[in-house]
Amino acid sequence: MTDLDEFRATVRDWCAAHVPKDWRANQTGVGDDEFVSFQKAWFAELHTAGYAVPHWPAEWGGGMSVPQQIVLYQELARHDAPRLVLAFVGIHHAASTLLAAGSEEQRRHLPAILDGEIWVQGFSEPEAGSDLAALRTTARADGDNFVVNGQKLWASGALHADWCLLLARTDPEAPKRHGISYFLMDMTTPGIDVRPIRNAVGDSHFCEIFLNDVTVPAANLIGPVNKGWQVAQATLGAERGMTMLELSERLGNAGFNWLLEAAPVEDPVVADRLAQFEIELSGLRGLCRDLVERTEAGQAGAADASIVKLYYSELLQRMTGFGAEIGGLNAHTVLAKPASSGWESGAWMLDFIGSWEWTIPGGASEIQRTIIGERGLGLPREPSAV
């Protein structure tokens, strides 16, 4: 038995003993307090085992090799473990930003994240979604502080967040990618108003954040003034690699298994579709593993992450749409899903509606195709509107 086989056996035994068997039932229809309590307890359980932040450097509590991380996410998906919904931005986006560009003092947030500190990403705005560089929230220098005014939109989990990764314009006269700065913002600061947005499936995960003369200390600036766009690439890059590998494993395990349970496999047309999905899932997993390994080696291409994001999001949409189709009326009348699940819960209509979260935010499919064409294939750039 190889070391990796032994590690897999260890993770498998841990999952069998620690993944809550009834979490789906217990997390369906729960209120915010129960959801937050469960999420924090599950994160603490993973942290105790050393499985919460395997992608972090060893000195900060991680240090797993890429093959070990792949095995870990495979086993968590195979045992239908709950997702780390609340901790996601902290352990991925905030951590990658702090490790890439944060000061030693700012990196004190890393241990705090392991202790349960919750983060939200304050990037998108009403007029700056896919075109993030068009953001209009301003940060005006005022002595040892910046005074922030503006609005952020689609801020996942903002209602429960302790801190925010904030992009704001510090030089309104500069070209739009050159006048943006990156801040860490304490969500308890006066002048912050968080308003949840009820979405199409009845959840209020997304929020608006209104900022009215919010004071942010200059010590909370990440990187140089007006260089926030470059720093943000580290944050956006956190959606690549292991996060996509985890999501692909979940789709290939729980998602595909739910589909098998719902499908009349004796129907040859249905059986053919299922076989096609299984092939596509194998391709997705291969792409994700390849991206992780080449990113770790510093060899990832400029469009590789866009390929994976596009492939995953559209496969997710096709699979959940097929589940809603074959599930019939029953699938259309399920109006609740587990709060700590992903986009492959088996509540097909809700999963299908939720799948649009992946084909629109984070760069719509059209934008991903443009990136693939221009940066990956070397095709001519699209004409600019200005």
TrEMBL record:
Database matches in Pfam families: Acyl-CoA_dh_1, Acyl-CoA_dh_M, Acyl-CoA_dh_N
Cross-referenced InterPro entries: Acyl-CoA_Oxase/DH_mid-dom, Acyl-CoA_Oxase/DH_mid-dom_sf, AcylCo_DH-like_C, AcylCo_DH/oxidase_C, AcylCoA_DH/ox_N, AcylCoA_DH/ox_N_sf, AcylCoA_DH/oxidase_NM_dom_sf, Mycobact_Acyl-CoA_DH
Domain Acyl-CoA dehydrogenase/oxidase C-terminal positions: 226-376
Domain Acyl-CoA dehydrogenase/oxidase N-terminal as annotated: residue spans: 4-117
Any Gene Ontology CC annotation: plasma membrane
Cofactor: FAD
Stretches assigned to the Acyl-CoA oxidase/dehydrogenase middle domain: 122-214
GO MF: flavin adenine dinucleotide binding; oxidoreductase activity, acting on the CH-CH group of donors
Highest taxon of the lineage: Bacteria
Keywords in alphabetical order: FAD, Flavoprotein, Oxidoreductase
Family: Belongs to the acyl-CoA dehydrogenase family.
Protein name: Acyl-CoA dehydrogenase
Organism: Mycolicibacterium septicum DSM 44393
